[in-house]
Amino acid sequence: MIRSFIFDIGNVLVPFDFNRAIQRISSQCTTRIEGLTPRAKEITQSYESGEIGRAEFLRQTIAELEYQGDEADFIAAWEDIFVENLAMTRLVAKLHGRYPLYLLSNTSDIHADYFEATYPVFQYFSSRVYSYLAGCMKPGRSIFEIAVRKFGVEPGETVYIDDLEANVATARELGFHALHYDHNRHARFLEQLHALGVDGIAE
User: Fold this and answer.
1) Most-buried pick from 59, 97, 156, 177 (CB within 10 A)?
2) Cα 110 from Cα 88, distance rounded (Å)
3) pLDDT per residue as tens digits for the range 16-66
4) Domain with 58 in it
5) Is residue 61 a contact partner of residue 105, using CB atoms and an 8 Å limit?
């Protein structure tokens, strides 16, 4: 029997595209940038894993991208990369009150502060584990184990939802009912939930 749900965030609740940020800041960079450089990706991972804080992330990334503009403008561009997945918002609203709902995400404080304040869907979740606070990231087992302890869930009674197969694989190894999510195939995802005995979720 399913008794609880754990949701990933990016490309599940809110699809995202870092190119939106790049487009906004590119005119203020001294060299032409088409996307995040490999080094910028490494810095971002260090930030999301809690190895470095916001100030160091900004210092290193601004230097790497040769950004010459205002730091506040950079943050505004960096955080505004999301769009709401309305189909998933509707599903979460239907599940709320019937099941405990939790969040488990690789993210940073810039992004968490933004999406928590911007999208009402986050009010439905009673607790969350974010990588930058946990000090570890998916697909590693440690962050899942932290979530199990914090949320007090039994993996065998919990649906875990993520857009990345590697994260889904770890969750399955730990005994979760782990589902790979593609926001372009939401109807298929609802069918999978129905097969697990989750009813009352039809669009």
Assistant:
1) 177
2) 23
3) 999 999 999 999 999 888 888 899 999 999 999 999 999 999 999 999 999
4) 18-79
5) no
